[in-house]
Amino acid sequence: MSEGGGDILVRRDGAIATVVFNRPRVRNAISFAMWGEIARVTEGLAKDDSVRAIVYRGAGTDAFASGADISEFTENRKDTDSALRYNAQTSAAYHALRDCPKPTVAMVYGYCMGGAVAVAMACDLRFAAEGSKFGIPAARLSIIYGADAVGQLVDLVGPAYAKDILYSARTVGDREALAMGFIQRLVPVAELETYTYDYLGTVVDNAPISVRGSKVTVDGYLAGMTDEHRERLARVQLEAFESEDYREGTRAFLEKRAPRFQGR
């Protein structure tokens, strides 16, 4: 099932939703309006109990996205005020992705550049087709990326590789991206879609409360496990213990059958 139209599409197949950047004629470059729509759509899917996992991808197989639509910069980033508005719009999109409580996967074909790299990094996992290319050309535009996005890059590839990528503004090939830990899977082009949805099929069959709790734990650890994160983890641990899914998991194990989790 598909929803919406224009430059952002939402498709649903059972418990898995797919968000599509739909501007193939310009390698799915992300416009100012699209940044706002990414935030709105992601926040809506996060609240939808029928959705257990989300895929982000570009239309076609030429590009995940070529980055922000630079042709708009002469208007949307022409002075300090417009630049601040633009940065607030992109920041809202990144935060919506990072804060989404459900598993998210960036499924990357072809080019993934600039702001699209930040979108991919904001997802939990990045699965890429062979031949994919990655780059952050900020140094060629006299742009400095925000601390959150750079921090995520450091978390993924380490400080030396992060500096290398940012200093040089070079394009990173698929195998180097895999070796440095930027992507988690590198799959033949013809197999990427099937692989991604088969993987998420396994994820959505697991207990949703447990999956959500794992995300809370990992994100809390990366953030320094503040008292707020510890309290949030304690709540979700108690929720899991008191859930019908906990009882179903135990019954299924003892009865030697696959569990049927309901997320409650």
Explain this structure to me?
The protein is 49% helix and 17% strand. The chain is α/β, with parallel strands linked by helices and 264 residues long. The two termini are 25 Å apart. The strands form two sheets. The chain has a seven-stranded mixed β-sheet, sandwiched between helices. The protein has a four-stranded mixed β-sheet with strand order 5-7-9-10. The longest helix is centred in the middle third of the chain and has 20 residues.
Topology, number of strands: 11
Overall form = globular
Radius of gyration: 19 Å
CATH superfamily of the largest domain: 2-enoyl-CoA Hydratase, Chain A, domain 1
CATH topology tier name of the largest domain: 2-enoyl-CoA Hydratase, Chain A, domain 1
Helix content: 40-55%
Biggest sheet statistics: 7 strands, mixed
The helix/strand order is: EEEHEEHHEEHEEHHEHEHHHH
Count of spatially separate domains:
2
Tally of separate helices: 11
The secondary-structure class comes to alpha/beta
